[in-house]
Amino acid sequence: MSQLRRFAAIPLILAVLLILSGSWYTVDQGEEGVVLRFGETVRVASHGLNFKVPLMESVVKISTRSDSRVYDGVESYSQDQQPAEIRISVTYQVPPGETAALYAKFGSTEAMMSRLLDRKLPQVLKIVFGRFSAATAIADRGRLNLEVYQALIAGIEDQPVLVEGVQVEDIKFSPAYEHSIEERMLAEVEVQKLRQNAEREKVQAQITVTKATANADAVRAAAEAEADAIRLRGEAEAAAISARGAAIRDNPGLIDLTKAERWNGQLPTTMVPNGTVPFIGVQ
Predict the structure, then answer these.
(1) What is the tens place of the pLDDT at every residue in 36-72?
(2) Distance of CA 113 to the CA centre of its chain
(3) Sign (positive/negative) of CA torsion 38, 39, 41, 45?
């Protein structure tokens, strides 16, 4: 009889242990646990070891980490009516302390994303992208990202989600338009090349003019220097002639003296008829 009682007690013990084992649980770092009692939220548990009332309470764990969601092939039209397929990603987070509100309103993070961002983002993207021309959307991607982000957070305010960033990752236009863009870019490159060549030729022409001006200045300076030298030599010679003239005028015998100094003492071997003997003066 005692053995039967022991065998009968084993299932009871196991049931008690099973119930007790369900009274504790752990919440990971980057999560919060929404504790429900018969389906009603009673508290939010932070990370670590926590306890709940067995059979009465349950726990729904909700991540508070940053996460990303990618939307590929969102169709839209630019301001100049160019069709495009856009790939865009959204980085979001359930703020700590908002997990109870998220559960009460949506039930789970995935349900929130499906009912909130999955519906709102394509609408916002189409509206904002329609304000940009095709060329501007490509050239000014940063402003496009910012305006989509601002429009998105304005459309989901007071919701238990924090949008951290929006990134337009790719924009695909029609093949014809992309071909026209490629041709336009090639034309712009060619124009830029011609402008660079023109600037280079302009600089080269300026260098040539500068060199020619320098050479002309050098020739002019050399000519002026030569002219000054000639003038100075002429002035010196004129001054010398003037000085000699004044000396001869003041000293009439200076000519005879000069002749005498230059005479070598020999008389001429031939005489012109009726000529006078040079350098001999008779008083």
Answers:
(1) 998 888 999 988 888 888 878 889 999 999 999 999 9
(2) 36
(3) positive
Mean pLDDT of the chain: 81
pLDDT digits (tens, 9 = 90+) for 1-15: 555 555 555 665 555
Residue 89: which residues within 8 A CB-CB, separation 6 or more? 68, 69, 70, 71, 166, 167, 169
One-letter amino acid at 93 equals Q
Query: What single string gives the DSSP state of each residue in the chain?
Result: -HHHHHHHHHHHHHHHHHHHHTTEEEE-TTEEEEEEETTEEEEEE-SEEEE--TTTEEEEEEE-S-EEEEEEEEEEE-TT--EEEEEEEEEEE--TT-HHHHHHHTSSHHHHIIIIIHHHHHHHHHHHHTTS-HHHHHHTHHHHHHHHHHHHHHHTTTSS-EEEEEEEEEEEE-HHHHHHHHHHHHHHHHHHHHHHHHHHHHHHHHHHHHHHHHHHHHHHHHHHHHHHHHHHHHHHHHHHHHHHHHHHHH-TTHHHHHHHHH--S---SS--TTPPPTT----
